[in-house]
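Hi Y.,

Following your request, here is the sequence exactly as I used it, all 259 residues.
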Amino acid sequence: MAHQATPVRRARLGRALGPEPTAAVSGAVLLLPDGDEVSARRPSPLMATASVRALGRRLARAGHDEGLVAHVVHYRYRGWNGSEAHLAQDATWAADEVVRRYGDVPVCLAGMGMGGRAALRAAGHTAVNSVLSLAPWLPEEDVAASPEPVKQLVGRRVLIVHGTNDERTDPELSFRLAARAKKANRDICRFEVHSDGHALHQYRSEVHALSEDFVMGTLFGRTFSRPVEDALAAPPPLGLRMPLAAGFGQSLRRPGVPR
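Below is the corresponding structure, written out as tokens. Let me know if you'd prefer a different format.
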């Protein structure tokens, strides 16, 4: 009896989130869910995407009139898996797929946890103009191993957001990566969410508002809020330890209130 060939696993894009854009697609956000350090299993579709779907829907609504499309990336594997860096490979494939579907439009990679690491690692793709990395999982520094690369971030706008009480991945590691990247790329900033944990649940509304402000500014040239402008302009460490204020975003939605 002949053995059947093992099916080749393929990454895929989920259906576009939110309402269909009223204009032709002119920008894309690729949402990269959290994952594990090592796992050859397939991600559970619903559980894996829960951390990024709400953010994706918010961004799709915010950019609806300007032609923004938002897709969740469904990975082949649940794990990063060492030098294979499967999640980063899938993020790169997804950027290629955006170009194939929509043409030459700017792409923002928006990742959570291990997906935040994938967003940073895959930023060198020619279509990518910005990276949003929420509570990125980063490896512990090891003198025997090469440090996490940052040269691919040159020419991209980068926002890292990290809770100060994150017990899954040390926020100090994302600060150190941002500090190294800032030496070659001034367009990087990092916000700290005081007392919040890895999932950033406590200040979810503020984190989503900050993310919207950044993504709409990078993809469509909207004016950044004052805190984001200040963080991008400030020298390290100030612009890399910017506190996210409680209630951020509320004033941005009120007519007549300066951004």
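The chain is about 30% helix and 15% strand.

Thanks again,
Q.
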